[in-house]
Every structure is written in C-alpha cells, then in structure tokens.
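User:
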Amino acid sequence: MKRLRFFAVMICAVLIFTNIPIQTSAFERKDHDKYMSEILFKNFKVIDNDPEVQDEIDALESACYLMIDQFNGNGQKDLDLLVQYGVENIPKQVSEISFNASGTTHRTYTHKGWESSFYMKSELEKSSWTERQAILMNTVDKIFEFDGNVQKQESFCKLLYYIHILGDHKDDTSWKIQNGLKMGVGGRTDNNDIIHELLESFEILFADQKHTHKYRSLTENLHKIDSRFGKVVNSVGGVNSDEKFVLYQEYVDDTLTILTLYLPEMLKDEAFFHEVFYQ
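Assistant: Predicted structure:
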C-alpha cells in the first residue's frame, strides 16, 4: 500500500513539473508574423490571403526570421525562398550566417538593437550581423522602390526589426526569467530603447507626413508611453518585482496598440508601400 502511495505521489510530481510553463524559446514564429501583419496592414482586409501579394509577405517574414531568429542551422527553406524570389547579394547556404545557441541565449546576439554599436565585437562576429542586416535590406529593396533613398529603406527595415523585438517582450512571463538579452522598450535615460529608435526612424520614414495629425498623434503617444516606462525602468532596482513587471507588460501592450492604430494608414500613404500592396 505504501509503495502504491509512493508511486502515486511521484506520478503527480512529474505531472506538475512537466506542466510548469518554462520560457526556453522565443515567441512562436506565427505570432511574430501575426504582429508584423497587424502593424503593417490592420483594418485593410484586402491584404489577407491575397495571392497577388503573398509572395511579398512571405519574403518579408522569411527575411525577418533569418536576420533575427535564425540559429543552429535552421532556416534553409527561408533562404531558398528569398533566392527564388530574386533577392540578390545574400548567402545561398544558411551555414554562412548560422551560429550555435539555445532558445534562452540566441537573443543576446541579434536582439539588442539594429545598430552594430549595441553589440560586442565577438557577438557581431558570431551572428554575422552585417550579413543578416543585408538579408533584410536586400529583400526590402527587391520588394519596394525607394528611388535610391537608402535611409528610408533602412528605416523601414528598422521598423520590421523592432516589431519583432516588441513581440519577444510581449512573450515574457516574469521579471525573474532571463531569456537572453534584448533591447528594452522605453524609458531609458540614454534613449537606447525601442521607442526612441522607432521615433528616430519615423522622422525619415514619414518625412512627408510630419505635418499630419496622424504623425503628431503617433509620436506624442509614443513619448507619453516612454515617460510611463521611465517611471518603472528608472525606479530603485528597475523592474524587480511582480508589480513593476505587470506595469511594464501593460506598457508593451500599449506600444503595440499605438503602432497598430497609426502605422497601417500611414504606410498606405507612402508611395513605396502603396504601389506594392494597394495598386
């Protein structure tokens, strides 16, 4: 009888521990694709499952994956897709950019920001960061016509990149879990965070819309959210309690909501975007 009880207790223990959610990998790819789609196209349902633009959307999704989340030899199909689509000057074999890591460490090499200055030299070399950036830049260049405006092209790539990192922040479940290093969302006194990076990119990406109510509302709302982040991030100890973490995650959601509210219409008004998805 005692032996049966012992085995019953052991079985219960195994069931309990195997059902504890452990954050060991990044946001599911389908979730990243969903957030990108919502921020780029929300409320324009004509884009959904439109065969005329599906190749372009697939290319953007594959390029973002290869740049940000590829490691341990995965992603050859995505690279093949880009080559077949006609993207030039990119690797033909994923082994040329792949590095060994885990779901809990790979973010350190690709999630700390777009600029190379955010990484250590060893991290840049391990991730082949320049080559990864080129994959996204050249894919975007293949899809859209920027009339030689490389700054605008890069600003759009930064937008895609930071949408992905925001998705990983939304995926976080606790301030106690260290799931690799990634750029913070807002509130930093040195402005090295996603919100300030986006604001800087928007000045270039939407240069012709700065006079509009949409642009002013977008940037004003992002500044307000940044101030709220600052109260948490710059508090004693930073995000070091469940209460602070809940607030931080609430502001992450608010940031995504703001982007989803304004960017689809603003992008639709940009010639490079309109010609591909709305002609």
